[in-house]
């Protein structure tokens, strides 16, 4: 039987700091309606989809930032998403700031079954940015302040989506640049990576390495390589446009296991893109060029788990 | 002081099965002369540069293949390369089939100092293809027959090239598709990856995963992602063109730490490409977005070294 999945990526335009969750949720419900009309079985929303990208705003007292976090899903504010999922028989992926009952804070994503159950939860592992206010920066990027490192690893679960059972996993934003995360998912036969991001168009730590005009290219390069090298699909879904004067670059994409871009958002606003995914491609990749059991050589990979930072290599000593 | 390196990649056109090493070496010496005229300080030759890509030819008795291997470097046949290196003060990277005194066979590469000393040796870890004759295939790809898995890991050494000390490492052909190899090099602060390949234009194991027209794209994608994610330069250097009716795809490239292609060969013959590499880019990458010590999370990467093949994920169980 053919395993085909109709996958939607729902890019969100900007959410201003002053806007409440009702604004974002209302727009997301409209995107779910559109996804339904396009025949989608699953819709992927971005990282921190319910609010502005608040890690750009400093709070000396973390408790003053509590209003950016969710303490329960669903909540009154997010209930309309769950209602729409049920109405349209549409699973959805949602990124949000999570505050746990015991006070831990994570940059989190969930995949929600149309019946409202959380099928999979992931907490971002690779937090970019910094912890303390940095007077050198024009714009803060305080993810290391507002979130703890995710404690769930990179989980994969086989879950029903539409007619199929699909091996789903997640990455969040900066995770996409780290091949380790992709590979841990690949080692669990991931078929669909749901990946939300909020990425500024301008690198505020720019010291010459990353030109502004390459930022979209680097994002796409990382996602395309991750999909190709792990024989999986991904929906890389952005928050886009101008949030209180700070531009996010958009360019959401759906990528296939050949690393090809199947669909791309080209606006800076709310935009739904859809692709028809042949899940058989994943198995083909897994059993040929990326048959890990046949080709991987973990005995040569020791440094990947044995060390965190890089070390300088030895200097060559001429025999003469 | 500015750290700039003039890097040359010397693509080789086809070498027919009947042609001796003298033919290849003569062409390589001419490319070294060209590299010298372009001001290059180092030239990178492909994988198995001295002969045709012999793993396409089956020998029941391995001893009958001995003539494809080098037992010493330099040898009478390869001495002209060493002489040219000295004459032009030009380091060179050479891929060749190695047979050791105790009878082991490897797909090997070395970097040779202009004075003729071997600075670094690497033996290919990720061997593609198969070990036994496969009657299903129109063309054999017997690397797993002709070579043992490399036993040197992914070494990096800090070596003099021209005016600079450069952290050099190597990958060979199929290695480039495996982010693990790149990362092990990156964890040793590699600045220049020398990478030779022989890649057929047509995938003879084609079962639908990899379309022929994507093969160059996949090669470039892997090299560009490897360079970006490890903040290094690479010279990806092909054997190209029609070897006894079997086409190799060429498209050698030099890539910078932003993943950008700086130079590309566009012929299917002997062709030298050159790029002026600012090694400071490597350090910038290593100290910002890819500051491994600050951002990597090995505690979440355990599967990468703990398992070889992939495992199926657990199935989701609805709470209801």
TrEMBL record, chains A, B:
Gene3D superfamilies: Carbon-nitrogen hydrolase. Residues 5-279 form the CN hydrolase domain. GO terms for molecular function: hydrolase activity. Keywords: Hydrolase. It comes from the Bacteria. PANTHER family: NITRILASE C965.09-RELATED. This is N-carbamoyl-D-amino-acid hydrolase. It comes from Paeniroseomonas aquatica.
């Amino acid at each position: 039987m053919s395993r085909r999945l109709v996958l939607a990526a729902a890019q969100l335009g900007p959410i201003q700091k002053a806007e409440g969750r009702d604004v974002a949720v209302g727009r997301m419900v409209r995107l779910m309606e559109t996804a339904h009309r396009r025949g989608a079985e699953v819709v992927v929303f971005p990282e921190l989809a319910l609010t502005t990208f608040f890690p750009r705003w400093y709070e000396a007292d973390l408790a003053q930032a509590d209003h950016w976090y969710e303490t329960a899903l669903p909540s009154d504010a997010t209930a309309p998403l769950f209602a729409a999922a049920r109405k349209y028989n549409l699973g959805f992926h949602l990124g949000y700031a999570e505050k746990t009952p015991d006070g831990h804070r994570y940059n989190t994503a969930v995949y929600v079954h149309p019946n409202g159950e959380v099928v999979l939860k992931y907490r971002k592992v690779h937090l970019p940015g910094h912890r303390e206010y940095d007077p050198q920066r024009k714009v803060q990027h305080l993810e290391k302040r507002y979130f703890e490192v995710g404690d769930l690893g990179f989980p994969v679960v086989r879950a029903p989506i539409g007619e199929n059972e699909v091996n789903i996993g997640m990455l969040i934003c900066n995770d996409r640049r780290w091949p380790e995360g992709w590979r841990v998912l690949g080692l669990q036969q991931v078929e669909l990576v749901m990946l939300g991001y909020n990425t500024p168009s301008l690198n505020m730590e720019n010291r010459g390495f990353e030109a502004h005009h390459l930022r979209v290219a680097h994002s796409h390069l990382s996602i395309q390589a991750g999909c190709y090298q792990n024989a999986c699909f991904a929906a890389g879904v952005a928050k886009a446009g101008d949030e209180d004067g700070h531009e996010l670059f958009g360019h959401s994409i759906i990528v296939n296991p050949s690393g090809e871009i199947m669909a791309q958002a080209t606006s800076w606003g709310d935009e739904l893109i859809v692709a028809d995914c042949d899940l058989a491609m994943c198995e083909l990749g897994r059993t040929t060029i990326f048959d890990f059991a046949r080709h991987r050589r973990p005995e040569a990979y020791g440094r990947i788990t044995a060390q965190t930072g890089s070390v300088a290599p030895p200097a060559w000593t001429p025999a003469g």
